[in-house]
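Review form for a predicted model. The reviewer records the input and the model, then writes brief findings.
Reviewer: anonymous (R2)
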Amino acid sequence: MIRFDKSVPPKLLVIHEHPVLRAQARKHLESSGYTVVEAGSCREAIAIMHTCTFAGIIVDNDMADYEAASPLSARSATGNSNIPCIVLATTRVIRKPDKDFNTALDDYLYKPFKPSALAKHVHQLIKTSVEIEHLRLVCPAAYALAGTTGINLTKFKLPFKQMIVLHALVSNSPRVVSKACFVDVLYSHKSPPINPYNAVESLVFHLRKRLRAEESNVSIKSVRGVGYRASINQIQNSIKNVNFLKL
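Model under review:
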């Protein structure tokens, strides 16, 4: 069991619309040494975030007002701007990008999960968030692991649509980005091709080919035919030895 110095217990904000599930989460988190503040809606949570600071935030992304009042976007205007957030998600496939999800700070916990697993996940995120190697966007044309220097992609001279695909994959790693999401991002503002899903597959095919030609250590994997995930090929048998993305 994870325990902390009780004189300074880490405070967590748990945001969930079901009181019974909030109570279960609170029970297991408090037994691990945390103090817990509950919120039954995202709007209530945002009001609390303006008055309190937390060690971490836990939010269910299936809540009715999650998109209209996302705590992830609101935290930048509070004292919790650099606080990690765990998003309780129903699927590993992202169908709509969350622009406020910080891949260098936040993480997902996929449902269903055992209540006891929540405390372990929170502890790991809070204690090691600065050490975990996340694929993240450093600037509009550079990608890197957390804490490392990015390699500029301008020499790549990627076609515009391929750059959009790579950006979406890297920004949402390690989650899977669905083909439907790419279709929406690429073709929602203009007439789509006859078969937009085939067009997405073609873009990914040529992007993969380009990454291999440049000996990049970023790879794109197809997941069950529904989408794609960007990952980092390990070097010297350990991701800790990866200092940058060779793009």
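Findings: DSSP finds seven helices and twelve strands in the chain.
Further findings: The helical segments are 19-31, 42-49, 71-74, 115-128, 160-172, 179-187, 196-213.
Recommendation: see findings above.
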